[in-house]
Each structure stands twice: as C-alpha cells, then as structure tokens.
C-alpha cells in the first residue's frame, strides 16, 4: 500500500527582518584573540619580551660611560656643530656685498685637499663660534655650494678646480649667492634668510677643511683615526661694498677656546709631548699685487663624531626580536601541529581572511605591549646615561615627545610588531615552527651580526637589502649629505634614512603575507 505524501505547506518561508550582513570578520578577530589570550605560554612570552626590552636596554645604558671632553659649540637651533676656520674679514654695516675670485685650492704640502674642503666668501653674524652665517664656497669634489647655519646646503654648478668668481650679497636678513666663470656673467645660486640678523655683520674670505679620516676594517675589528690637515687658497679681485669706512682686513682663527690647551704666550711654554694636538693657527699672506693667500684648518658643519644616545637607549629591542619571532610563528604553526587548523578553515573557508585576522591580532597585541615597553625604556635609559656623563650641551636632554625620540619609541614598537607578523606569514608558508623561526631570525638578526665583520661596503648593502634595515628607525643622529662620514654598523649607523629602512621591513612583510595567502588557498591542510 502506498501512502500518499502530505501536501506541501502553503505557509511562506521565514525571512529574517534583519538586514543582510557579510561573513563576520569581527567575530573572526574575536576568535583569534581568544585563541591567543587563552594560551598562557604565549602571554608569558609577550610579557618576557617586554621585560627583556627594558632590562637589557637599562643594562646597556649602565655600561655606557663618557668622560668630560673638550669645548662644545652649539648652533642657535641647539645642534652641536664645528665652527673652526680661518677668517679674513671686515665689518659690514647694513646692506652690502663681498666679491672675490678663488683659485689654487690645495691641501697641505701641495697634496690633494679633502673632498669637502672649503674656500670662499662668508657673511657671519660675528666672529663668535656658533653664530649665524651664510657662505658661498668652492669645494674640490662637490663644486660650488651655498651653505648656511651649519646644516643647510644648496648646490651650485659642478665647477671645481678652475678659478671661480663668487659674490655674496646682504639685503636686510636675506643673503644671496652668485657665481661666475669670468666675473662678468653671473648665475644665482640661491637665497637664504637668517632670522634676527644684526645690522652690522662680519664679511670676508675664509678657508676650512675637515679632518682626514683613515679607516681600517678587518674581520677582527675596525680602526678609525682622524688627522688634522691644512688647506690653502688664493683670493684676488676682492671687492667689499657696504663696509665700514677706513676699516682694514683682519685675520681671525674662529674656534672654540680649549680650556685644556696650554697658553702659548706663557713664559717657557712648550707643546705637549703627548695628548691631543694643539690647534695650529692659520696664516694670511698678501702679495704686492693684492692677492691674499689664506691657510687654515677646521670645518663649518654639524658635529657627527659623538655616539647616538637615542639609538643606545634601545639595545634590548634587538634581543626582544627573538621572542616576537617565536610568538608570531607559533601563533599559526601550533594549529597545524595539533590539527586545529582544519576546524578553523571549516568555520571560515576564506583562508585569506583567517590569515588577515591572525596578522591583525598578533600585530596589534605585540605593538601595544612593545609600545609600553619602549616608552618605559627610553626615559630610564636616558636618565642612566645622563648620570654617566651624557649631559647637555654635548648631549641634549631629550624628552619622550621630542621628534627623534618619539620616532624611535614608536618605530621600535612597530618593528617588533612587524617582525611578529613576518614570522606568522613564514609559519603559514612553511607550516613548521623551527623552520619559520630560523628563516626570520636569519633575515633580521644575522645581518646585524655579520655587518660587524664584513667589509664596510658589503655590510652596508646587507643592511640595505634585508629586514635588518628597519633598525635605522632608532637612529637619533642626522647624517648630512654635505659632509663625509664613515657609517659604521658598530657605531649604530645605518646606510638608509630611518623611515626608508623601516619601509624595507614593511615590504618584506607585505610580500610574505601575499605569498602566504596564495599558498593557503592552493594547498590542502
């Protein structure tokens, strides 16, 4: 007997009155957050990483000691500078100009001068070290330059070596530089404004040359020595308009007084047999034809020989990286090891969304905790280093909100966070904790270690091309292109600017996450 099926219900199907929604990404984030928070070992690792950041940084700061050095020159903006040169000058009352032809720029004994040796015209607020100035100068390797207030530089023509005409004019607080090859046809190099410039200034000729650096680098270490040298230049066709009537040219060695140097005028004074070299005064010779031959040494530039006290405050971050790498890798490889990843992907078939949620959770948690750690680390380390001799004016008293310090604090926390995300992506690709941790440590930590032993150029390229470049975010010293310096990894110097180095790590994270998402979609669990 066949039983007929019951008639279909004529009742309409149930329809929710709530608006349609997408698959809940917020719920996925909460689920991943719950996974992290419920594994106490992961929370413990995060706390230990924060503690290591603070403690190692404090220990490193306690071991950094500096004794009192020589005099310190500070520019009006607070920058520590070098302001030492031979100055042949006259008072310039009000507006005016100084014009000269420069030739025969030579080093000591006729040798080639340093690439950034300078000879030209300058208008300076006074002969006091650190006072405002603008200078138009000829250099051996970098052509004509308009430079002002120690840190600013504007390139003129690339002419070097041949006689060059220079003219610097003053109109109120605005100074304008011109150059010429023949003294008839002039080209404007640029104009600058020196705020609060006094009506009467000092204008004239100058020569200066930085120290000659000798760098020897081998697998066992680095040796860097600096030797003073002189530079000589000839000046003719000198014309000063606006000068004080009846004034004559005066030669001055502009430099900071050295309280440790012996008084050469004292009876029986002799040069010391050892210790720092005594400053050697410059010379000015005037020929019968009115050609001035000026010899001097020193430099007019930012001081870049001291340690980076901001970078020195974050030594613990380097060690904390290892903990963050392990944390990021385990956040996904643990699920593969225990088979829980199948449940996760069954609940959320869109695997890229799972990876994105994990990246946001591990990145957000590590950044928040790391930011607290670095914000505590910096003032503690700074206080310790100040008690060890790193005091103003040579080393400014920086607060947490000063621009370079704030960038280093936030950037260090972001570095640790991105390293954790990089390890997460590597874990998604390799599905193995040890493999993912090894790969990321090799990329981030090993270049830092090898950079101390490899030839300098190789080390610098290594710190440009690997995620280790991101440690440049901790740099507090500004390196200026208008002066040479040896960028040594052991001195905390990185070849890329802070944000450029940080961008290298961001690029690695973006590429690795993209590859991980692609692998997750195409590979079975």
What does this protein look like?
The protein has 525 residues and is an alpha+beta fold. It folds into 2 domains: 252 residues, no CATH class; 199 residues, Jelly Rolls (Sandwich), CATH 2.60.120. The chain has 10 helices and 18 strands. The strands form 3 sheets. Strands 3, 4, 5, 6, 7, 8, 9, 10, 11, 14, 15, 16 and 17 form a 13-stranded antiparallel beta sheet that branches. A 3-stranded antiparallel beta sheet has the order 1-2-18, with no helix packed on it. Strands 12-13 form a two-stranded antiparallel ribbon. A hairpin with a 5-residue loop joins β9 and β10. It is elongated and about 95 Å long.
Q: What is the tally of beta strands?
A: 18
Mean pLDDT, nearest integer?
86
Beta-strand fraction estimate: 15-25%
User: What is the radius of gyration computed over CA atoms, rounded to a whole number of angstroms?
Assistant: 32 Å
What count of helical segments does DSSP give? 10
- In total, the number of domains comes to 2
N→C terminal distance: 51 Å
Q: Which word captures the global form?
A: elongated
Structural class: alpha+beta
Helix amount: 25-40%
Instruction: Give the topology string: H per helix, E per strand.
Output: HHEEEEEEEEEEEEEEEEEEHHHHHHHH
Catalogue the unreliable spans.
13-22, 263-277
